Amino acid sequence: MKLSLNWITLRVHNLEASLDFYHRILGLSVERRFESRGRQIVMLGTGEGQPKIELIQGDETVLKPECGVSVGFEVASLDEAIDHLTSQGIPLARGPIMPNPHLRFLYVLDPDGFEVQLAEHI
Fold this sequence. Notes:
This protein has 122 residues and is of the alpha/beta class. The protein has two helices and eight strands, in the order E-H-E-E-E-E-H-E-E-E. A four-stranded mixed beta sheet has the order 1-4-3-2, with helices on one face. The protein has a four-stranded mixed beta sheet with strand order 5-8-7-6, with no helix packed on it. The chain is globular, with a radius of gyration of 15 Å.
C-alpha cells in the first residue's frame, strides 16, 4: 500500500484568528473555504502535491494543544523566520534549537496554543 499525507485537521475556536496566523503570518495560501454541517472550514496549503492544513471552527476541543502534537514546516532561513515572526508580534515558544550541525528549529504557538515548528536544514 502506498500512502501520501493529504491534510492535518486542527479544530480551532476562532477561525479568523487562526486564518490570520496561518495565512497572513506564515504565508500558507487559502486553497478552499466552505461550510459543512454548519461548520466553517478553510483548507490551506504550501503548493501542489503538498499536504494541507484544514482549519475547522468549533466550540469543542477534540485535541488539546498540550497533547504533544505539532505541525512542522521547513523554512529556507530560520533567522529570517525569526525576524518575520518578531515583526508580527509572535513570540518564540521554544528555541532556536540545534540538535545536530545540520538542523535548527524553533516553536511558536498558534492562536489555540498548538505548537508550530519551523525548521531549517543546513
